[in-house]
Structures are given as C-alpha cells and as structure tokens.
Design goal:
This protein has one domain. The chain is built from no helices and 10 strands. It has a 10-stranded antiparallel beta sheet, with no helix packed on it. The two termini are about 20 Å apart. The mean pLDDT is about 95.
Amino acid sequence: MVHRHAASHLHWDLRLEMEGVARSWAVPKEPPGERGVRRLAIMQPDHAVEYMEFEGIIPEGEYGAGKVEIWDKGRYALEDRGKGKLLVSFEGRRLRGRYLLLNTAGKQWLFFKTGE
C-alpha cells in the first residue's frame, strides 16, 4: 500500500504488512516507477494493518493532519531480507517489479527499482 499524504508537506507513505503490523516509510517525492531513480525513504513507527485501507482527512491539530488517499495498492513478495535491506517484488497498479529498500543511516533508507 502506498498512501499519498498531503500533510504539512506532501509525501508518500510506503506500507508493507510484515509480522502483523504495517512497516512504514515516508517518501518525500513520488515513488520511482523506473530504474535509475532513487528516493529517500524515512522509516516511521509501525502502524496497525487496518490503517493501510484508510482514506480521508486527518483533522487539524492531530498528528499527520491532512488528506490521505490510496495512491497504489497491490501484492508484494519479500524476496530477500538482510541487515539493512529489503528486496521486494511489487504487483501494484503503479509500482510493479523488483524494488530495494536499503538502510543508509539510522531511519534513512534509499528506495529504488532494481528490475522488472
């Protein structure tokens, strides 16, 4: 699931259901659809899996206030999980193919497409 989140700054929330929770990364620019484009992804606290289907407005004064809409949705397969990396295959409407999330420092990750 990828949410387009128009909060104080527009960003995309990448969420992967893992181990009963939604692992989450905030991606400040639109997720890459082609190889060669790298995006910063900042790891966020886990969310409840039920939140993945949320679309609507988070009211002013609440954390994350703003409009949340589903930008992409589909299945994924975890191909490899190592220290500081996740290799996944997406079968979404927009994100399709193999992608890598690579931890660079602390909560900072790189998110990019590696293949079809």
